[in-house]
What we know:
By secondary structure, the chain is an alpha+beta fold. The strands form four sheets. Strands 1, 2, 3, 4, 5, 6, 7, 8 and 9 form a nine-stranded mixed β-sheet that branches. A six-stranded mixed β-sheet has the order 15-17-16-18-19-23, with helices on both faces. Strands 10-11-14-12-13 form a five-stranded mixed β-sheet. Mean pLDDT is 87; it is low at 5-13, 101-111, 410-415 and 645-649.
Amino acid sequence: MNSSYSAQNITVLKGLEAVRKRPGMYIGTTGIDGLHHLVFEVVDNSVDEAMQGFCNDILVVLEGNDVVRVEDNGRGIPVDIHPTERVSALELVMTRLHAGGKFDKKSYKVSGGLHGVGVSVVNALSEWCEAFIHVNGKIHTQRYRIGIPEGPAVETAAESLPYGAGSPERRGTVVRWKADTSIFETTTYNFDALSNRLRELAFLNKGLKITIRDERLSIPKVHEFKFDGGVKSFVKYLNENKTVLNKEPVFVEGVRDDGAGGSIEVECAIQYNDGFNEIMFSFVNDINTREGGTHLVGFKSALTRTLNEFLKKAKISKKLDESLSGDDVREGLTAVLSIKLPNPQFEGQTKGKLGNSEVKGIVESLVNEQLELYFDRHPDVIANILEKSVLAARARIAARQARDATRRKNAMDSAGLPGKLADCSEKDPALCELFLVEGDSAGGSAKGGRDRRTQAILSLWGKMLNVEKQRIEKVITNDKLQPVIASIGAGCGNNFDISKIRYHKVIIMADADVDGSHIRTLLLTFFYRYMTELIERGHVYLAMPPLYKISYDKKSFYAYDDPEKDRILAESGKDPEKVTVQRYKGLGEMNPDQLCDTTMDPAKRNMIQVHLDDTVEAERIFTTLMGEVVAPRREFIEENALLVSNLDV
Length: 649
C-alpha cells in the first residue's frame, strides 16, 4: 500500500459526476426502490407547482423500452438565460445540483423538493433524458446524455415531439428519460407500486388529477386519481372495509404563524373503527414522514390530552382508576396528518422524520382547540370514542398483568424458551435462522435435516389465532402464539424491541396447500400487527418447498411449480410411463435429506423475503382478508379466483 498522501490524491468530482459515483447518497438504493425514486422526484416538482396553484393535471406514462414520461400543466421550467451563469435556466435545473426555484421562497412558499437535486439526479442517472417546455405557444427542448447537454435549449416544432403536442395554448413541463442500465439493478418499473404513491399524492392535494398510464401493455392500463375531499377522502379510503364509529371523519384544519415570518398549514382527519389497530399516516409538504417527527408528537399529545379532559366530565370515568394513555386513545384510530411549512428540517435526504421544534406546539395547540370545539358540538361521537378508549385501557391493564405473569413464569424457567423449540448453537442473531414449521411430522423432518449450528426449528400445532380480531391481551396469552413470541425473544406489540431478536431470518415453512396458505397468512397478520419492524427490516421469509418430485433413470428432480415440472418432463425425453411424478401434499412426506436439499440448505433453497413496500395497501389487504366484514373478502376472492384456478389441492 502506498503510504504517501498529498494533494494529488484528492479527487474533485465535477457537475453530476458525484451522483453517478455514489447514487445511493441521492436516491437511497440502485434497486427497484431507487428506480421508482426517479419518477417521484420528477412528479414531486409537478406537485410543487400544484401546491402553488399553478397546476391541476399530472400525467405519468410508462412507455416501451423502460422509458418514462412525466407531464404537467404548470408554469414550465424557465428557458431564458440566467443572468450570471450565462446558460438557460432549464439547463441549470437539469444539470446542476442545488439549482432551483425553491430556495428564495418567492416562487415556492412550500415544496417537497428542498435540496434542488431532484430532476438533476434523474438526469445524471439516465442513459438519456430530454425536457420539453410548453410556454407562450412555443416549445423549447433540450436533450442530455448521462447528464451532459447535447446542445443548448432550442425552440422545436410540435410535430417533432415524441408525444401529442396538444393545443397551442398548452403550457407546462414534460420530462422523458431512460434509466441507466449500468447503474440500476433493474430498469423495469412496477405499475402498482408507482400507482400507490401517486394515489397518495392525489389524496394530499385535493382537486389535483394524477393519471398513470402503462403503454407497455397491448391494451394500456390506466389509473386516474382525483379526490376533492383531500385527507378526509384518504381516511375514508383506509377505513373502507371497516365498521366505523363516527360516520364522517373529524376534520381539523388551520394556519398558524411559525414565528419566523412564515406560516404553517395543518390538515388532519380522524375516524375511529371497531378494530384494535392504529393506522396513522403523517406528511410534510406531501412527503411521507414514516418515522414521524415533531408534527406527529404534537398531534398525539393533543389527542390524548383532549380525550382525557372529556373523560373527566363523563360518567364513564368512574369505571377507570387511571388516565387514558396514548395507546388507549389511538386504538381503532385511523388518522392522516398533513402539514405544509416553508422551511422543514428533515433528518437526512430520505426525509423520513421532521425535526422542527416549533411545529410540535403549533400542531398540538391547533388540534386541541379544534377537537374541543368539534366534540362539544358532537357529544354522541365523543361518547363512543371514550367508551372504546376506556375498554382499551382495561385491556392494556389486563395485558400488563398477563405480561407480568409470563415474566414470572419465565423467571422460574431457567431457559425461558418453549419446549417445542429445537434451538441452534450459534449465538450471533445475524447468523441464525428460525423455521416456523407446520405440524410435528414436518417439524421432525426439519429437525433431522437442519444445520444444528445456525438453524432452529419451532413446530406449530393446532389452529393459529387470527389477531386481526383480537386485542393484545388475547394475543400474548394465546398458547399458539406464546411460543413464537418467546422464541423470537423481542417482545410483542408496543413492547417489541428489534434489537433483541434472536434470529435475523424468521422463515415460515408451511405445506403447499390451502391449510399451509392459511397458516402463512395468519402468521404474516401477526407479524404485521404486532412485530411490524420485523417485516420492515426484512427479517421475515417464506420457505418455498417443491411441489413435485420427478424420478427417472434412478435420478430425482424437484419442481417448484407446474411450468418447471412440464419443463423437466419435456427435457427428460422419456416415455411418460417410465417417469414417476410425486405431488407433495405436505412437508411431512419428505425425509430429512430431501427437505434439507430442497428447502433448507442456503446453497440450494428458494425463499421469498417479505417486504412492506406500501403500508396503505398492506393495511387494506389485511383488513379485507382477515377482518370481520365478509362482503369485501368475498369480492376479493371472486376477483382473484382465476389466479388459483389451476391449483391442485
